[in-house]
Amino acid sequence: MNEMIELGKVQKLTVIREKKFGIYLGEKGSAEGVLLPAKQVPEGTVLGDELEVFIYRDSGDRLIATTRRPYLQMGETAVLEVADLAGIGAFLNWGLEKDLLLPHREQTRELKKGDRILAALYEDRSRRLCATMRVYDYLSGESPYQPENMVSGTVYQVNPQVGVFVAVDNKYYGLIPAGEVFREYQIGDSVAARVVRVREDGKLDLAARRQAYLQMDDDAEMLFGEIEKRGGSLPFGEKADPELIRSELHLSKNAFKRALGRLLKEEKIVIEENGIRMIKK
């Protein structure tokens, strides 16, 4: 392959030959080139023109150019939709005519058609472009974020002992530590979070909740709604086991107590021996 032609990347190449079925692109003066099919050749293109194209392989594993832009390039990550499933893996829609293969060995959870997952692009041993859900090595620690910034991203790994790994902006390292996880997350989930700390290596520690004094109102509203849904009472109170509170309400014990305090102050509930009761007005 011509050194100018980089597989899996958008690049500018020169028109070096013309044929009825398309044009060949490469380095000026080179005899080698890659085909851009006639249906994609911009009108008025002539020898010597420079075109911006993406290089991949067609169904016969031959290098081919396209003027279409894929959703990701070599070394990048992007959220892609599962277009189909096959014996060799899943096929992802990445914006080109030929879907992108995600081999079984590169999947980190069971997939179904229509799933949206974070993937990276790489070249396999056969020099074909493939996708992987193992995106850790493709993320960066050079984010522009600081503590208290609000960010969003995609879950790419869940470890109950460590926490929930999030690709912030789908390209920066982020982690919701296990102690800050109060609900169940799945790989592929979209997450909005707050930056708690920027580590020395640039990785971000996150919290899926706002600062306590801001979060308290939302928690109190949610808790009151839960009491209403359960017929006006809750069968446990502030002395409940933290794990019970976490599993039933997705709150830490401290957040639960703060929400209780707010509802008590607003005279919306009373705490009884066997739990909490809503005050009906």
UniProtKB/TrEMBL annotation:
Stretches assigned to the S1 motif domain: 148-209
Domain of life: Bacteria
Pfam families (UniProt xref): CvfB_2nd (PF21543), S1_2 (PF13509), WHD_CvfB (PF17783)
Gene Ontology MF term list: nucleic acid binding
Gene3D superfamilies hit by this protein: Nucleic acid-binding proteins, Winged helix-like DNA-binding domain superfamily/Winged helix DNA-binding domain
Family: Belongs to the CvfB family.
Protein name: S1 motif domain-containing protein
Organism field: Cuneatibacter caecimuris
Lineage: Bacteria, Bacillati, Bacillota, Clostridia, Lachnospirales
